[in-house]
Amino acid sequence: MTATARHAALVAAACAALGAAVALQLARDRWYPRSDIQAAEILYVRSPAAMQRLALDHDSLLADVYWIRAVQYYGGNRLAPQLRKHHYELLYPMLDITTSLDPHFNIAYRFGAIFLSEEYPGGPGRSDQAIALLRKGLAARPDKWQYYLDAGFVNYFHLHDYRAAADWFSRGARLPNAPNWMPPLAAATLAKGNDRASSRFLWRQLLDSDQAWLRNAATRALQQLDALDQMDRLEEIVRRYPPPMGQPHSWIGLIRRGVLAGLPVDPTRTPYDIDPETGRVALSPSSSLNPMPFDTARQAR
Amino acid sequence: MHAIRSVAVNVFKESVRDRVPYNLVLFAVLLISSSYLLGQLTAGQDVKIVKDLGLSATAVFGLFIAVFIGIGLVSKEVERRSIYPLLAKPVSRPQFIAGKYAGLVLTLAVNVAVMTIALYVVLGYMSWMEPAAVRASWDAPGPDPRLLKAIALIFLELMLVTAIALFFSTFSGPLLSAALTLGLYIVGQFNADLKNFDRVVNSKTAIWLARGAYHVLPDLSAFDVKTQVVHGLPVSSGYMLATTGYAAVYIAALLLGAVAIFSRRDFK
Amino acid sequence: MPPVIRIDELTKDYKVGFWRSRPYRALDRLSLEIAEGEVFGFLGPNGAGKTTTLKLLMQLIFPTRGGAEILGRPLGDVQARQRIGFLPENPSFYDYLTAEELLNYFGQLFGYAPAERGRRVAALLDRVGIGAERRLQLRKFSKGMIQRVGIAQALLNDPEVIFLDEPMSGLDPLGRRDVRNLILELRDQGRTVFFSSHILADAEALCSRVAVVANGRLAAAGRLSEILAFQVRGWDLVMDTIRPDVLERVRPVVRRATEISAGRYSLEVPLEQPPDRLLAELVAEGATLVSLTPIRDTLEDFFVRRVAEAGAGARAEEAARARD
Ligand SMILES: Nc1ncnc2c1ncn2[C@@H]1O[C@H](COP(=O)(O)OP(=O)(O)O)[C@@H](O)[C@H]1O
Ligand SMILES: [Mg+2]
To answer: Residue B14 sits in which domain range?
Structure first.
């Protein structure tokens, strides 16, 4: 073969290989379409999109950086000395960028929702943003029943919208991989609205959560529910054994008369307060269980 | 065959003597270790972060090796005239190109292997340190064998980038080759954008041009499955196979082109 | 016997100029034949086209026209290179390798087994006079040592034909002598040596035949003695301790007397006047001999003349064509 013929053959082979590459790429795009979420995000004209471009193909790593910043930001503000004003305005944008860079960043959705819905000053108290974040998570990972559960929680505890909470729970329960306690949870929430039994049921599920942080929150919430029950029972006793005429309500009086064996204490071993005039029982301001959750039954009285 | 092997071994020897890869490997190892410290600052996501950092570091350092050694592979020999005595030996020009390519791929393989082992050691250690309850909360196990899929695709991408660098280095100097290779690398990353060009522009010509570019330019974003793998999401064998085939034919096209150009070249 | 090297109308045009490149003819229809066992000197001043010719023969560049055969095989036959050695002009190697590793690498390319390689490498480095330095990286080598390594690599495969481009350049007098002896050894072993040089003395000491190129054209070819233009034009006699009165006495017989230092003179003696009588006379007057060397045309002198002739010839040719 002459040099010229060999050269022509080489060029032809190179072109044929390039053609094969194009064909393979076409076929692969047909067999394994790249997800629409990714494509849609690329077309966003928003800062997370810009961030994504800058990250080249290291979005995932940049997502970690933003997640770290979000955690530090939240933690730093939550623990800020009382004198300084707590502020959380950047929390949602940070979580948004984190989850845009890495749409599968599970923990950013779940913790993010908890951080966002936490009442001020413990958090920004933005349940709406928490729900928005979870919706975004469900768009990326529609199979995550945990996101439905979390959205239900936010509705239940922060927005006190029991119908919406029950709706979230039952939608999550329909997922094939949802745990078997999800359907009864939905039913209980819908049937009873806000009652301590269903609250207790909800929190109990979190007692064996995989996150220590969540387990602690659940323990505390269950103690608060116990305290509410105890206060109801104590007021019942106070009503049944009123003090002699002209004397104030007091624990000492009840103990002297043998009604109580000792000072009644809450689950953190702090004695309850009693109003000398009305006999109403309340948590001591020094108890670590403060602030107590909203409770319809006690508010009504 | 022995000619190709000897040229390849010499490339490997040069890259080792240049000490560049040592520094890179050391740096990667440091990075992976420091990611462990970084992980302590975050809420229980250290393992995910170590995986992200490890995979990204592997890709970035591999890229540096592929580009900065790749662009010099041929042009440096021509510039230093060390190619004169070499081509007077029983080595054909296609064998020379094949040997150079194989040598750099060998270098990359060793580097990627070292980084992979380092990553698995760190992940194994972290996994072993954590109680079972915490481990259960992870999306994917610590030293997850599925990471190898991401690493395999990173390696394929590096092989492709090496072929690009080699291709340019057969007809241009190191500086121009570096610029062209890095340019093509970045374009390759954004390539998937071109496919959806019709969503942002209306001009038919622009859409067709973008489509053409998408198909002809290397589609490097296809090699990035880091996110999926880190979250334990499946990456199908079919996808792996199709992407491997894509890399293989694209590399073949580049090497054939390199040989075609190089075989006609005068060494001034 | 067929020639070992046959060069046929070899022509090379380089492109020069950046924007509007035009061809520049560096080699113009060179034809030569070199027989087995010859030591062939390829002579010409700088820029004559010697390196261009050797690069063409090694397929480092491709001819514009014409071709060549080495050992009966056309250029570009990779297998023929198994029997060929080549030393480039001002060679340059991988500076991160040691001399030993470099030769080992080249030995691998020839397909030798490790033991065979080790033997050849050691023997060759001994032969070109590289001692313990063979374990040093080449970046630490002087120009002369690199040249020696270059010669070693050209001989690694015990080649039948050896091409050397300016093998003496970069060497000190001792090194030049070593290379000369090496080339003579190769001749004695029946190898064919084709070497280029711009120094006539190198060729005189070694060559059976020479070719002279100038401006890319063959100016002359044949035995050195046949190229009459190279004959001696006179003598350069350098003597020490010449007394001034003695100098005045010999002045009329010499063409020129130049004082080098006090009492030491360089005397240019014309060819008609054999230098032995003058030498005897001066020695008798107490002067001492420093050196006696023949004066002859330099290659440059020769080229100037030949190029003028060649130019005139070409013009005559053109004129003849124009007439037809
Ligand atoms: N790469 C090149 N491009 C343009 N001109 C060249 C090139 N190489 C050599 N030349 C020219 O060709 C002529 C012959 O050069 P060369 O073969 O190197 O001469 P020699 O080796 O006899 O000194 C010179 O005039 C030189 O300037
Ligand atoms: Mg020269």
So the answer is: 2-264
| pLDDT, averaged across chain A | 79
pLDDT at C220 > cutoff 50: yes
**Where is average pLDDT lowest: A190-194, A212-216, A227-231, C2-6?**
A190-194
Q: Write the pLDDT tens digit of every residue in C11-33.
A: 999 988 777 778 889 999 999 99
Report the distance separating Cα B195 and Cα B222, nearest Å.
13
Amino acid at A193: G
Task: Indicate the Cα dihedral angle A101, A102, A107, A110, nearest 10°.
Answer: 70
Closest by CA position to A237, among listed A283, A274, A277: A274
Min CA distance, B133 vs chain A (Å)?
Answer: 6
CA separation for the pair C9, C16 (Å, rounded):
22
What does residue C258 show for φ and ψ, rounded to 5 degrees?
A: -120, 130
Inter-residue contact A284 to A266 (CB < 8 Å): yes
Q: Which of A24, A111, A213 sits opposite B242 (nearest CB)?
A: A24
Distance in angstroms (rounded) separating the CA atoms of residues A256 and C264: 140
Query: Nearest residue of B to residue A68 by CA position?
Result: B42
Whether the predicted pLDDT of C128 surpasses 60 = yes
Question: What is each CA distance from C172 to C175, C193, C197, C202, C293, in whole angstroms?
Answer: 5, 22, 15, 13, 20
ipTM of model: 0.84
Q: How many residues does chain B have?
A: 268
Pick from A7, A22, A67: which is nearest to B45 by CB?
A67
Q: Which amino acid is at C219?
A: A
* Residue A301 pLDDT > 80: no
Task: Give which of B198, B203, B235, B225 is closest to B214, Cα–Cα.
Answer: B198
DSSP C174: H
Number of domains in chain B: 1
CA A144 to CA A103: how far, in whole Å?
13
- H/E segment holding residue C152: helix C143-154
DSSP letter (8 states) at residue B96: H
Dihedral sign computed on CA atoms, order C46, C52, C53, C57: positive
CA dist C67 and C59 (Å) reads: 11
- DSSP symbol at B138: S
Q: Which residue among C12, C16, C24 has the greatest number of ligand 1 atoms within 8 angstroms of its CB, and so is best to mutate?
A: C24
Question: B166 is written with which tokens?
Answer: 């080699």
Q: How confident is the model at residue B31 (pLDDT cuts 50, 70, 90)?
A: low
pLDDT at A38 over 50: no
pLDDT of residue A102: 87
Q: Judged by CB atoms within 8 Å, which residues 2-31 of B form the interface with A?
A: none
Grouping H, G, I as helix, E, B as strand and the rest as coil, residue C298 is: coil
Q: What is the mean pLDDT of chain B?
A: 83
DSSP per-residue string spanning chain A:
--HHHHHHHHHHHHHHHHHHHHHHHHHHHHHSPPPHHHHHHHH--SHHHHHHHHTTT-HHHHHHHHHHHHHHHHHHHHTS-TTSPP--TTHHHHHHHHHHH-TT-HHHHHHHHHHHHSPTTTS---HHHHHHHHHHHHHH-TT-HHHHHHHHHIIIIIS--HHHHHHHHHHHHTSTT--TTHHHHHHHHHHHSS-HHHHHHHHHHHHT-S-HHHHHHHHHHHHHHHHHHHHHHHHHHHHHSPPPTTPPP-HHHHHHTTS-SS--B-TTS-BPEE-TTT--EE--TT-TTPSPPP-HHHHH-
Q: With 70 as the cut, is the pLDDT of residue C316 above it?
A: no
Residue C323 has pLDDT above 60, yes or no: no
C-alpha C198 to ligand 1 mean position (Å): 14
Cβ atoms of residues A197 and A187 within 8 Å: no
Query: Domains of chain A, with CATH numbers?
Result: 43-177 (1.25.40.10)
C111/B90 CB distance under 8 A: yes
